Amino acid sequence: MLKELREIVQQVTASSDLNDAMNELVRQTRHAMQVDCCSIYLRQPHKQNYLLAATDGLAASAVGRAKIPLGEGIVGLIGDKEELINLADARSHPKFKYLPEAREDAFISFLGAPIIHQRTTLGVLVVQQKQERLFEEGEESFLVTLASQLATVIAHAEAKGNLLSPNWHGVLRGLAGSPGVAIGRAWVWRPRVTFDQVKARKSDDAQLQHARLNKVLIQVEDELNGMALRFQESQSSESVAVFEVYQYILKDPMFISLIRAEIDQGWIAGSAVKRVCEQQISQFGGMTDPYLRERAADIRDLGQRLLTRLIHEDEGMLTLSLDKPIILVADEISATLIAEIPPNKLKGIVSAKGSINSHAAILARSMGIPAVMGIDHTFELLEDRTLIVDGYNGDLLVEPVPSVLREYRRLIAQEEQMDELFASTRLEKAITLDGMPVSLLLNAGLSADSDVSSNDTVDGIGLFRTEIPFMMRDRFPSEQEQVIGYRRVMASYVGKSVCMRTLDVGGDKQLPYFPIVEENPFLGWRGIRLTLDHPEIFLVQLKAMLRASQGLDNLSIMLPMVTNLDEVRVARRMLDRAWREVSDETAEQKGEIRYPSLGVMIEVPSLLYLLPDLAPLVDFWSVGTNDLTQYLLAVDRNNGRVANIYDAFHPAVLRALQQIFDEAERYGKPVSICGELAGDPIGVLVLLAMGYRRFSMNNSNIMRIKYIVRQSRFDELQKLLQEVLNQQQVGIIKDLFGRYLEERGLGGLLRGPR
Question: Domain named GAF: which ranges (predicted)?
Fold first, then answer.
């Protein structure tokens, strides 16, 4: 029956409509299993029953009408027990319930399997036969397999809204891209030109195609300059930096030379742009690192902008005209699209693609615009409908009822008050009420949060990602190219520490000119493992960092993905060598080069057992809570099937964090947190209670975390931690520290599911 199973699964999963998929499944299953009837019952939680949703064998008129209350009948029993039931004579079972409207009195034998998706029972799949018999083991397995496949189809259909009627209202789940709440009408945007619309064509006149490319490069550069200027005038330096990324790509000689090479090979300008951009989109889009994967969206946006100009050469500036404030809804939202909408007309953002690391999300956070990313839905159905964007939960509410609207309007008013509170401490020090000083640092890279020299709210950079410039080229960047980039960052933080993480590529972060193929990139050749195997790359980067720090003396260097002590020893020897060589070369120049502090990222669990031996080898530790949590719990948080298991408040994770701090205290090592837990309102309270004093986070979290710190007392937090130290239930930790926030008027920062 394997062939039949494959055919059924293939046809059902290919269907775009849930009802069609279910009808096809019951028809083919009845034929494949040679039974007299196959039916699907879907659970309706709010109505407390199972509804006959599809059948081939029962009365067709009963579909959508016949109902079985939860817990009743054999169908209800299967749902309660969440296991298969096989009966030779269903009529003799004490739970048997006859459905007269379905006309099932002729059926005797019964086989039913629960339809379960992520621990939730969605319904029951049933086959029946008129003669009395017990179904075979192979038939049981066949039905269970079909039920598991159907569960995925049903869950996906509900998420996409295939069950929605024009008058439907409810909640769609996504990712929280930017905090806040917005209410407004949906405005669905579609790009004028996409890569799929561009046909691959060649030309005999390469000179003409180069001229066309030159023209649109100037036009797009002018557009980007105008966008950056508008945000500069609004004093949003983080926003300006987003457009500097686009300008960086547009002016990158390697990127442009690749396009010109395609033109020289005979392709027209549009085809050349398409070919180069699709190659780089594929490169970035295939990475598992969410921060780097989102760079594919930047390339796509810039490529589509160039293509639009090439195709619509005679048109003037491309502008959007809106007569009222809107909720921007699109398959993929770019930073440049946001920039084209007048700020007073943009209330919220909803995107099918993208994550919290996309430039759209970063820009939305810097502008204070609520955003929800990753909404899997047919957006045409949302056009001009009333939406609530809940940027805390990642929820999108469609056509909310009046009582829900009133509650969210109250929350918006509360938000405005909290923003004023946060702003009031902008220039204040991060210090607890009982006098405990805290350092707030920045996680940065080639992104909006990397160029914040005017941001005087932070104490330095706790994590600077150096890998992006390596990935934007078709070769390794030269030492001088790296010096220029690193110098710009360090010069922006004179008198403040800048901690640069050495090259963290390999495995899941592919370089186009240095491909690595691995089955499991998370456990592969990456980070310090790769750079130590290629000292010619590592030494150049170390020298570039040292040269860039000359006269500034604010550099510290951090090693990623460290798993053993030998890696640290070899890296230290290479840093010694780089420092000696650079010092000798610059001996006659003004200003010596200070030997930097060297630290490690604690993100691999093996280091937890090596901390006493590690201490003499390094100057500081920094805890990457994201990867440490993933490795400790064996959970990929970007995998939707297991993401609910990822929990930074898991007792094992908290005990590991406490152990790291205790060992740091014992051996006199400065230790910081550079994962997302540092920017979480409850997370920072728990970490403070453990003793941590240095937190590195995204720029969007700095102000609220500073305010939370200034409203807290270290001695009170310690007592709370003692209460839950030996607790095994995560909810207790969140409840206690959440109540602490609420008592200080900060309950608005806690947005649990409503």
Answer: 17-164
Please tell me the predicted confidence (pLDDT) of residue 678: 92
| Token pair in block for residue 407 | 């509650």
Q: Kindly report each contact of residues 736-745 with a partner whose C-beta sits within 8 Å and lies 24 or more positions away, as own/partner.
A: 737/682, 737/685, 737/686, 738/682, 740/685, 740/712, 740/716, 741/681, 741/682, 741/685, 741/708, 744/711, 744/712
The CA-to-CA distance between both ends of the chain, in Å, stands at 45
Give me 106's structure tokens: 């002729």
Q: Would you give the DSSP letter of residue 503?
A: P
Is the confidence at residue 313, as pLDDT, over 90? no
What pLDDT was estimated at residue 516?
60
Tallying the residues shown for the chain, one arrives at 754
pLDDT of 710? 94
d(CA 35, CA 142): 13
The residue from 37, 38, 277, 674 that is catalytic is: 674
Distance CA 741, CA 685 (A): 9
Please confirm, yes or no, whether 93 is among the known catalytic residues. Answer: no
- b/e sequence 546-560, b meaning 16+ C-beta within 10 Å: bbbbbebebbbbbbb
Helices marked H in 252-322: 253-264, 269-285, 290-293, 295-311
Identity of the residue numbered 218: I
pLDDT tens digit sequence for 49-80: 999 999 999 999 999 889 999 989 999 999 99
Asked whether the CA dihedral 240, 243, 248, 250 is positive or negative, the reply is negative
Average pLDDT, the chain: 83
In whole angstroms, what is the distance from residue 505 CA to residue 289 CA?
10
Percent of the chain beyond pLDDT 90? 40
Q: Give the DSSP H or E segment for 403.
A: helix 402-423
690-716 CB burial, b ≥16 within 10 A, e <16: bbbbbbbbbbbbbbbbbbbbbbbbbeb
Question: For position 68, what pLDDT does the model report?
Answer: 92
Three-class DSSP labels, 542-568? HHHHHHHCCCCCCEEEEECCCCCHHHH
Contact 77, 69 (CB under 8 A): no
Contact 362, 238 (CB under 8 A): yes
Annotated catalytic residue 169: no
Q: Which residues contact 3 (CB under 8 A, 6 or more apart)?
A: none
Q: What are phi and psi of 734, to 5 degrees?
A: -65, -40
Give the whole-angstrom CA distance, residue 223 versus residue 336.
Answer: 9
**How many angstroms separate the CA atoms of 42 and 24, rounded?**
16
* 643-702 residue pLDDT tens: 667 888 888 999 999 999 999 999 999 999 998 899 889 999 999 999 999 999 877 688
Region of 118 on the Ramachandran plot (φ > 0 left; ψ -120 to 50 alpha; else beta): left
289 alpha-carbon distance from chain centroid: 9
Annotated catalytic residue, options 117, 359, 377, 650: 359
d(CA 441, CA 457): 9
